[in-house]
Amino acid sequence: MAYHLRSASTPSSPRSNKAEVEEQFQSLSTTISSPSATIGMMCDGLRRLGDIYSCIEKMMCTTSSQVSLCQTLQRLAVEAELGRSLVVLDLCNGMRESFMELKMTVQELLLALRRGDDVSSQVKAYVRQANKVQKQFKKISKKTASDKNDCRVVMLLAEAREITISLLEFTSSILSKQVEMPKWSLASKTFQRSKIVCQEEQLQALEHSIGDLESGVELLYRRLIQNRVSLLNVLSS
């Protein structure tokens, strides 16, 4: 089920925005922890994260938030969060490239299957690429910890950053399980047309899903950039 933030045309207070964003965080956390989570749910989660970052940006542009963010102690917290956000930007950029490579690997697997070739090498390539995506998270696990802060915007940005990393990591875990070596290597040596057709459909669906993930991460990347620009404008005002 998709969840949507309020339309920008609907008047709302910073306090109600905060409550709404917190509700979205809780919903996303539940999705990530669900054993039945799917790639489609992760695609929806990326879109919802983009909406969350847009909502936080609106909050930081209010007069009260700008005054708070520019106070000496809060300014230091904002600058620290700006630094940590670079880690997430790098991660999103890496994920975009990885999704492109995964999609190309799936396309190669699909072509090999249609030709009736042994697809073992393509399956191994997919597994390697999926594992490569997961390795990205081992490099950032110790770089994103943040201190407690009583500034509403900084706190929400920190929470959004943490849920973003969790969602992307969970997405990579789901992708790594989409193609299993024993099943595909065995099927590639059979001539049961119905089984091959079924696998073609699975691969086409996987290719489409990875494309959706790629678009979702691209949108999230742009929203993160917009957030950084807005924060930097507040600090320089």
From TrEMBL:
Domain of life where this protein originates: Eukaryota
Segments of this protein annotated with the region Disordered: 1-25
Start-end of Polar residues biased regions: 7-16
TM region positions: none
GO BP terms: root development; shoot system development
Protein known as: Uncharacterized protein
Organism: Triticum aestivum (Wheat)
